[in-house]
User: What shape does this take?
Amino acid sequence: MRALPSTGPWRGGVVAGALLAAVAAPGAAGAVSPRAVHTLTRVTPAGPASVLLSSTADAAVVATRARAARCARRAPVVLTVRVDGAAVGQVRLHSSRWRALRFHGPVGPGDHRVRVTATGRRGCAAATLDELRLTPATQPGDDEGHATPRGPLRAIPVNAAARAELALGSDQRLQDTFLSHFDGLTPENEMKMGIVEPSPGTFAFRQADALVDYAQRHGKSVRGHTLIWQSQLPGWLTRRRWSRADMLAVMHQWIGAIVGRYRGRIADWDVLNELFDAAGDWRPSPWYVAIGPDLADAALRAAHDADPAARLFINDFDIERPGPKQDAVFALVRDLRLRGVPIDGVGIQAHWSIGDLVPEQMLLTTLRRFASLGVRVELTELDVMTDHQPDALLRQAAAYAMAGRVCQAVAACDRVTVWGISDRDSWRGAANRALLFDTDFLEKPAYAALRDALAAT
Ligand code: G3I
Assistant: This one.
């Protein structure tokens, strides 16, 4: 965990449950000039923190650091953040070590009342807050062509893939780790067709609903994953050959049902997953065999019809390096954009291995290449398998930091998702130690490394 510097402009002394004094932020460039608070304040049930912040931009992120007060009973304190009366996030603090926290809007231009309250067991419900502020959110394409990011760094959210157990089970360590350290979730399997549509036209949303409800209850975002893929399909779909017309009808019903169900609640969908093989040729999925290449148009238009506000992604692995597969994704997205088919982003899955990392400059070039099409670029399934050298976890941390730096350098990159919460549940297997928390849910060096790279400055 990154330590708070012992000196600096934010070392203002502790104010007991008081109104924070707003001060002007050091000159933020462009259309955004948020005011920030660099001070320390103590929050208790009787004394919430409340501050007026302003932004001239359309969107912003409330960022703060916090630590729980020392408490003999080691009970957590829960901080709830409201912007203009609406809850935007909640976090559970367990320790008196400083933690970086981020809460997302909705925050538009103008003045905003940000209020932070603390709840918890008697005698333990106190925390200290630092650096409460609005951070400018940038638009896709802002910094294309520049080697380093311009202006202040953004606070870029970190999500994690999560399984239904998170919402339906009672594993406190799993829940605490997710709630305290991640900004949102992607259902790892629970929105795949094999689970959701077990027989034609019959839908089983229990697990997906549970994850969406859980995320929303706790102020976390959800990425929808995934609509058109060749894996985890129901048997009724894979067991027979389909005519083009029948398969298009199946696709419309499937996409309409799931995207429509979460209309307005899920802002981003992986619509097209792993369309191409390593040579850049279309994979012979049941979708492709029946419909052909315009399955991309049909799926994107169906998703757009079901939720016109949702951002629609194509998502794939092994596209970090130049080559036929990257070219195939690039060409498809360019073609879709030119023809006005709704496509908003490219997801680079980023399943990596410590011994075979993509060079930083190459990854940067790749993100910029996709961003040049005017779409968002996200790292959607990041994990880094380690080896068994003594310094493996430090080299892993360096790899995660590199991923964060590259995302930070490209304005179109506005989120990083890691593929699981802890090594205990990683699809890579616990022995490969690919994630940010170990099998006992202890934080690994990679967590702070990634967060630091994605933090606002
Ligand atoms: O649902 C059955 C359950 O009934 C059974 O008891 C259990 C026994 O092993 O298996 C369960 O199914 C497993 C499923 O995950 C749900 O947990 C499958 O065996 C297992 O193969 C499946 O793995 C998932 C994999 O996609 C399927 O290809 C991984 O959890 C999931 O992390 C992985 O995610 C994919 C992304 O969606 C797309 N990109 C690649 C990524 C990694 O493969």
